[in-house]
Amino acid sequence: MDNFIKIDNFSRLTPYTTLFWQGTVVTVMLSLCTVAIGFVLALILSGMRLSHFYPLAFLALDKDGHKMEEGWRATLGKANPISFIATAYVEILRSTPVLVQVAIIYYGVFGSLIELPSFTFLGFIKFERFFPGVVALGMNSGAYLCEIMRSGIQSIDGGQTEAARSLGMSQLQNMRYIILPQAIKNILPAIANEFVVIIKESAITYTIGVQDIMSAVNAVRGATFIIIEPLLVATAIYFCLCFPTSKLIAYFERRMSRGDRR
Amino acid sequence: METGDKLIEVIDLEKHYNSGTIKALDGVTVTINKGDVMVVIGPSGSGKSTFLRSLNLLEEPTGGAIIFDNVDITKKKYRDENGKWVKVNMDLHRQKMGMVFQHFNLFPHKTIMENMTLSPIKVKKVPEEEAKKKALELLDRVGLADRAEAYPIQLSGGQKQRIAIVRALMMEPDVMLFDEPTSALDPEMVGEVLDVMRELAKDGMTMVVVTHEMGFAREVGNRILFMSDGKLLEEGSPEEIFETPKHPRLKEFLSKVL
User: CA B229 to CA B250: how far, in whole Å?
Assistant: First the structure.
């Protein structure tokens, strides 16, 4: 273990600059697409989890139309299949490793079930590898974002709903005018943090051959047998992506909390 | 201002939890007439708040009936005169019952003006200009016209509660329900809220008030209900309740609070 880092090894990396540059573009694209998919998915999922869909509610009504409080009919009446599906999805996605999910999506779903067209876009991004990566990461972050949104909605004091409903607003109007505007403000920082997490987590897609920053490191290693120096370059790039993003988030967070002390 | 016209009929109302082992309401029967100022008193946990919240179904009763506008609103649906099933539209009934909460529950992300006009505009489809004009009139009545563009966080507790009262009045309710409106206030702010309520009673508004303010109950109420353990133990005029209480539990309660 004489010299851990050799300065002149960095100069040997110069021929691979484009590889790192392309990797950075892929990572940013991957993160943006993942957030978009995850956000839409999370909206749908949290809507499902908080839905009031009780197809068997009629079972829980007694003969003069009162709602029963206990018994098997009351239990069935409270069953909400839509919420159950969403909850099951979230719990499964949160309780399994991303690495496994990415592999299953790439080798399982897009490897055998669905055939993807093979082409490159932006000149160097291989669609048939990029797309499964985005889908897998999007499905994963959708589960996490769903939990953020749900907790944001549930963090609003129950008195707000009571006040809105007692003024004659429907549950939908209550959500739209009272609960969501307050909840979204509360969860924006958490959503933005999730974005930083996604940038870092996207590194895992190099295992399915997405040409992100990590895969550039691997390519350099394979060609030159130097490992620490390209890893340090990758570290620097990830830091340059994540640190300004989280600083930006902190700035907006401060600005919004200033509004609270009007 | 008693009229004797029935407004809300509560029949044998029950609210049970845990298979009936806990009875928050245990067979309450009472009729609320137009113009009544009905004050509900009783120890903590006696079911007063549950009773009030049941009236506009923030709590769902497990038995009994609340007849309002000739409809039993505790049921999800009922048969009309042609024998057809009709769904009970709770939102419609709630519009006619204003509710004032212990913790005000103003919408913190809206200005006072928006707090007051949101529901009339969105629910009753009142034109914005008209709603604003009415809001200003009401704000003027409670002496807060200059705070229309303020946010709830800028107001004191007493001011917030006065806003909560006029916000409920914006919907032109048939009855106002007050759930311990002064319990979360500093002692010196209690008076300003009670003054607004006193005014309201004088104008003939039907009110149901859950409160610990015995002085207010005595002075403004025309009927007093005494509840304990989910049961309605005694009902009468303020004189009957405070001068000649009959039930031993009421005597005990009054000896502690007066």
Answer: 12
Q: Are A208 and A132 in contact (CB under 8 A)?
A: yes
Pick A158 or B76 by higher pLDDT: A158
Give CA separation, B33 vs A3, A130, B57, B68, in Å.
93, 71, 19, 11
- d(C-alpha A52, C-alpha A31), whole Å: 33
Per residue in A19-44, pLDDT tens?
A: 899 999 999 999 999 999 999 999 89
Q: Is A181 helix (H, G, I), strand (E, B) or coil?
A: helix
Indicate the residue of B77, B92, B95 with minimum beta-carbon distance to A65. B77
Q: Which residues pair with B98 in a beta bridge?
A: B176
Looking up residue A56, the CATH number of its domain turns out to be 1.10.3720.10
B contacts of A259 (beta carbons < 8 Å): none
Residue A259 has pLDDT above 60, yes or no: no
Q: Which residues of A touch B106 (CB under 8 A)?
A: 163
Q: Are B180 and B49 in contact (CB under 8 A)?
A: yes
Confidence class for position A257, pLDDT limits 50, 70, 90: low
CA dihedral A254, A256, A257, A261 (to 10 degrees): 130
Q: Can you give the pTM of this predicted structure?
A: 0.79
Which among B91, B104, B167 is the top mutation candidate for probing chain A, defined by the most A β-carbons within 10 Å of its own β-carbon? B91
DSSP string, chain B: -----EEEEEEEEEEEEGGGTEEEEEEEEEEEETT-EEEEE--TTSSHHHHHHHHTTSS--SEEEEEETTEETTSSEEE-TTS-EEE--HHHHHHTEEEE-TT----TTS-HHHHHHHHHHHTS---HHHHHHHHHHHHHHTT-GGGTTS-GGGS-HHHHHHHHHHHHHTT--SEEEEESTTTTS-HHHHHHHHHHHHHHHHTT-EEEEE-S-HHHHHHH-SEEEEEETTEEEEEE-HHHHHHS--SHHHHHHHHHH-
Q: Do B97 and A166 make contact, defined as CB atoms within 8 angstroms?
A: yes
- Binary contact (A177, B105; C-beta < 8 A): no
Q: Is the pLDDT of residue B4 over 80?
A: no
In chain A, how many domains are there?
Answer: 1
Q: Is residue A223 part of a domain?
A: yes
Flag whether A2 is in a domain: no
Domain for residue A118, yes or no? yes
Query: Is A159 within the bounds of a domain?
Result: yes
Chain A hits for B63, CB-CB cut-off 8 Å, are 66
Task: Give the integer Cα–Cα distance in Å for A137 and A228.
Answer: 27
Q: Which domain holds residue A54?
A: 7-260
Average confidence score pLDDT of chain B? 90
Task: Note whether B168 contacts A173, CB cutoff 8 Å.
Answer: no
- Which of A65, A157, A178 lies at the smallest CB-CB distance from B76? A65
